[in-house]
Amino acid sequence: MDILNRTDSETLRQASLGPVSYAQLFRQPNQYRGRLVTVSGVVRRVSRVELPSNDFGIKQYYQVWLWPSDNPSAPMVIYCLRLPQGFSTGMELAEQAAVTGYFFKRWAYQANDALRAAPELLARTLQWEQRPVMTPPQAAETWPLPLVVGVAAVAALLAAGIVYLRTRPTRPELPDRPPNFDALYKMDQPEQPADTHG
After folding, report:
1. CB distance 88 to 97 below 8 Å
2. Phi then psi dihedrals of residue 88, to 5 deg
3. Which of 112, 107, 114, 84 shows the shortest CA–CA distance to 97?
4. Torsion over CA of 151, 153, 154 and 160, rounded to 10 degrees?
5. Which domain holds residue 122?
C-alpha cells in the first residue's frame, strides 16, 4: 500500500501486465500474486475504512466490490487508497470502472448462501468511466389561459375572413353612367296607325 501511495496512477498503468480475467486470477493465483494487473467491471459497493496511526501515514482506504465484465455473477474485492472526485460510497451503486492494482490473494468472505472466495487486489484508485450528467429539461414557458383563448379566437376570425374573401360570389361590374330607360318608354306608347293617305 505504501508503494501505491507513493506512485502515480499513470506509472502504475504502464507497469501493469494489462487486462486479466476473473478466471485467471481465481484459478491461477500463484502466477499473478504481487503483480500489477488491470480489471474492469461494475462497482456496486464501496465502504470507507479508517486506519490506526501507522509509519506510512496512510489514514484510510476503501473496500470496493467490483463485478467484473467477464464474470458478472461473482465479485472481486479491491482495497484502494482513494476514490475519484465525486465517486460515491454506499451499498447500492452501479458505476463502470477499471482498476490497476496488485493482485494479493483469494479472499474468503461469507456470502448469503455459503463461504466463498473472491480475487483481492490492492490499488491506488479507480479509473471511473463517469456517466454524463443529464440535466432535466427546462419547463416550457406557459401562457395564461385567457391569453391563449384570445389568440386562438383572433386566429379563427382571421382564417374565417380569408376563407370568406376567397369564396364569396363576384358581382358583375356596373357601368358608371345612369341606365337608359328610353326602350321602356317606347314600349308604353300606343302604336300609331299607319298613314295610308299618302
Report:
1. no
2. -90, 160
3. 84
4. 140
5. 2-128
